[in-house]
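Progress note, sequence design subtask.
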């Protein structure tokens, strides 16, 4: 699908000095679907910002193995007075959002309320396990173990699986395709998605791999169940290992393209 070039801007909420030195006290309204109102997003000073976005170019690995973005020059500064390029990009390329519409009749990306794309982040670190088993899955037991250390997952929060796969984004291991073409990388287990939907109040889930489901999956139950419940997922996140297990707030700059099933996004974590 060819999409027009777009520029995503985060509004200047306050002065940089106040933003980095004090709490913003921003409160989100209700999340997508049945999620309840979120807790205050910024309850204290923000000391650093972590970019969770991979740089996107035609060589970035894709689920299909084929390039999903092309770029051509329309005009150049010297002869034309402007530098302008045209992008032709698949919606599900690079660090990108899966809107509910991607796997259900739920909302398109432009229909997601802004407050649903911001929330406190819980990072589940499975790097050690993933290093020995690329097909490892985040399970309800992993979520309960996180809660034993950090308390209950926050209402209106976002859960990220940190598998360490972001470090492989420019290698063949990112896809992990074997000689039969089966992919191998970590993802959420269907039961973890069910647990978060039925027992917790989570807006979105995040992975640093190519899919919310683990690489070998062919039925994509997490996509089906999670997106089908009106929630969103973010794939191919970068730098999750730079974040604490709890205490960060994530902001997903999803594209506001009418009827979009998702799209490349600029994503930030505030710590």
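Output:
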């Amino acid at each position: 699908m060819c999409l027009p070039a777009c520029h995503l801007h985060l509004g200047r909420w306050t002065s940089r000095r106040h933003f980095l030195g004090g709490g913003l006290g921003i409160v989100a309204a209700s999340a997508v679907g049945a999620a309840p109102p979120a807790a205050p997003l910024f309850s204290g000073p923000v000391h650093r910002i972590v970019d969770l976005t991979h740089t996107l170019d035609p060589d970035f690995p894709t689920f299909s193995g084929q390039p999903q973005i092309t770029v051509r020059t329309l005009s150049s500064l010297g002869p034309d007075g402007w530098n302008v390029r045209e992008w032709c990009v698949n919606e599900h390329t690079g660090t990108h959002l899966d809107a509910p519409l991607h796997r259900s009749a739920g909302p398109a990306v432009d229909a997601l309320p802004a407050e649903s794309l911001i929330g406190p982040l819980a990072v589940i670190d499975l790097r050690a396990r993933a290093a020995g088993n690329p097909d490892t899955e985040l399970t309800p037991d992993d979520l309960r173990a996180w809660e034993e250390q950090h308390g209950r997952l926050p209402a209106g929060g976002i859960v990220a699986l940190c598998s360490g796969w972001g470090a492989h984004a420019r290698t063949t291991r990112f896809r992990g395709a074997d000689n039969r073409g089966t992919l191998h990388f970590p993802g959420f287990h269907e039961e973890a998605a069910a647990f978060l939907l039925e027992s917790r109040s989570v807006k979105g889930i995040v992975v640093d791999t190519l899919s919310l489901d683990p690489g070998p999956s062919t039925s994509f139950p997490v996509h089906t169940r999670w997106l089908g419940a009106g929630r969103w997922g973010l794939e191919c996140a970068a730098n999750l290992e730079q974040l604490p297990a709890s205490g960060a707030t994530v902001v997903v700059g999803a594209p506001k393209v009418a009827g979009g099933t998702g799209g490349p996004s600029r994503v930030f974590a505030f710590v």
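Residues 155 and 201 are 5 Å apart (CA to CA). Work on this subtask will continue into the next period as scheduled.
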